[in-house]
Design a protein that fits this description.
Elements: E1 14-19, H1 23-34, E2 39-45, H2 48-58, E3 62-66, H3 74-81, E4 86-91, H4 99-105, E5 109-112, H5 117-128, H6 136-147, H7 163-173, H8 178-185, H9 189-202, H10 208-217
Parallel strand pairs: 1-2, 1-3, 3-4, 4-5
């Protein structure tokens, strides 16, 4: 089942849950998000188990999930709620050793806890819209991780992509947004959006993050390739 998007948010308001074992962090995020008319904080959790229960009972559109929490860590909590909500993982360091595993668990993106307020708000909106959020530093971390791993066999469905869809996938893997891909290919952003949707459907991928993973794992794009 696909996670809800902003379009399904009640009354156009994006419902957000906060999961972090530090109360001061949650308070800061709550104050920032509550100041936005289209965002509503519907609950808070101090550990991963509480986060899973919060998603079940409050049905948020997006969860801001800390990686390191007691009882149940953010990675396992993410695995358990993916399909019910979108998850943006919170991390203290962009080179955190768990970055790769959290993406594999289904996170829609990452956000540094030190990020400015406008970036936090943007991250929530991007995730709620069904898109992914990967900063350049996080993308580099992923590339470094893939560089240490042997290339996997070609995944099913990759040969079903048209040449243009394959090109779009390569650009996705470089971390380009739809607007940037449109500029690169000299087409309308709506055309790129259609190509991205087709790529995800043909490869049975949940979002752009999974598309990035597949592109590197399959060897379609190599670390350092631009």
């Amino acid at each position: 089942m696909d996670a809800p998007s902003a379009a399904s948010a009640r009354g156009g308001v994006i419902r957000v849950a906060l999961a972090d074992d530090q109360e001061l962090v949650r308070t800061g995020f709550r104050l920032i998000l509550s100041a936005e008319p289209d965002l509503e904080v519907v609950g808070e959790a101090a550990n991963g188990r509480e986060a899973v229960e919060l998603v079940r009972t409050r049905r948020p559109d997006v969860v801001l999930m800390d990686v390191r929490m007691p009882v149940l860590d953010g990675i396992e909590a993410t695995r358990r709620v993916v399909g019910q909500t979108r998850v943006v993982v919170l991390t203290t360091f962009d080179l955190d050793s768990v970055v790769f595993e959290a993406i594999r668990a289904g996170a829609s993106g990452f956000l540094l806890k030190t990020a400015p307020a406008d970036e936090l708000v943007r991250a929530v909106r991007v995730a709620a819209a069904g898109d992914s959020l990967l900063s350049p530093s996080i993308t580099r971390r992923l590339v470094e991780e893939f560089a240490r791993r042997p290339a996997a066999t070609q995944p099913q469905g990759l040969d079903e992509l048209t040449p243009r869809e394959t090109e779009v996938l390569r650009l996705l893997a470089r971390g380009l947004s739809n607007a940037e891909i449109a500029a690169e290919l000299v087409v309308e952003p709506s055309t790129v959006k259609s190509h991205v949707a087709s790529v995800l459907a043909k490869l049975d991928l949940r979002d752009r993050v999974q598309a990035v993973i597949l592109a590197y794992e399959s060897g379609l794009i190599q670390p350092g390739q631009s």
